[in-house]
Amino acid sequence: MIKLYLGIDVGSVSTNLVLVDAENRVLASEYLRTRGQPIQVVQEGLRLLAPRIPADAEISGVGVTGSARSLIGVAVGADVVKNEITAHAIAADLVEPGVQTVLEIGGQDSKIIVLRHGVVIDFAMNTVCAAGTGSFLDHQAARIGIPIEDFGALALKSKHPVHIAGRCSVFAESDMVHKQQMGHGTEDIISGLCDALVRNYLNNVGKGKEILSPVVFQGGVAANVGIKASFEKALQCEVIVPEHYNVMGAIGSAVLARYSMGEDARSAFRGFALSDLEFEASTFTCDGCPNICEIVNLSLDGKLLARWGGRCGKWEDLEAAPAGAECV
Fold first, then answer.
1. Residues 62-117: tens digit of each pLDDT
2. What are the chain's domains?
3. Residue 87: Cβ-neighbour burial (10 angstroms; 0-12, 13-18, 19+)
4. What phi and psi, each to the nearest 5 degrees, are found at residue 55?
5. What is the pLDDT of residue 171?
6. How far is CA 57 from CA 22, 48, 73, 128, 194, in A?
7. What is the pTM of this model?
């Protein structure tokens, strides 16, 4: 029987699923939009992956990461639930052994991970500003009337990139309009926008971090060759973009699941049939103390599977009823 490992990364913008074998090779992957429905999108991803599994293979471990990892971990029966920093670091080290810096930029968030000798020693994530994320580029590309898929290639054609204020997305947009009105070429403006995003990322997310090579660049924005070129110009070193740059969190989760499962251990995975099950998530607010915790319930066919969100452990007993609080 061939052992396969399933990794799931559920973020605010995208949900990614991968299957790896015992040698950590990616056999199949799915990149889907979350659309605010993490459970339904994971079910959709499982439906797409199921036909691609060999008849003589079994899922021997499941790892989950991402912002909705607690919810999805319970829903699928995950063996390992880890944060995004750990998952992305594991995947990057797999692609580039000895990696010392991981740059990760997605649609609505970005992060930097600093490793030394295979161990994460520092990391940071963006705060509220969108100027260092993929959504910033998407918005500006739409404003210029250029498909985002062509953005990077056009940036590389620039002969004289313009300087665009990139500290804030609002200022960047007004500065871009000003440069257009001054008559600067589209390629030069696009290149300037790439430089602005990189400058914002390094000045905010990367502030105070020791960025050493090898540097691995992952996340959806890594597909943009213009951003890659801007990073290489700013850092004065090669920036490596992995083959599976957009599903690295899921790859890391699958590898972590493989590491955690013993030779004879049996996965808690509910199986691909769970894509047809009816899950229900609900919440209620506990007013038992000043913390006012928002408690999340996950039920399957009317049976409560799990609760989380409390600080004191009061609601870890699944038999406890939310006295004085209504589910919403």
1. 999 998 898 899 899 999 999 999 999 999 999 999 999 999 987 777 899 999 99
2. 2-90+249-276 (3.30.420.40), 97-241 (3.30.420.40), 279-316 (no CATH)
3. buried
4. -65, -30
5. 66
6. 11, 16, 22, 44, 44
7. 0.84
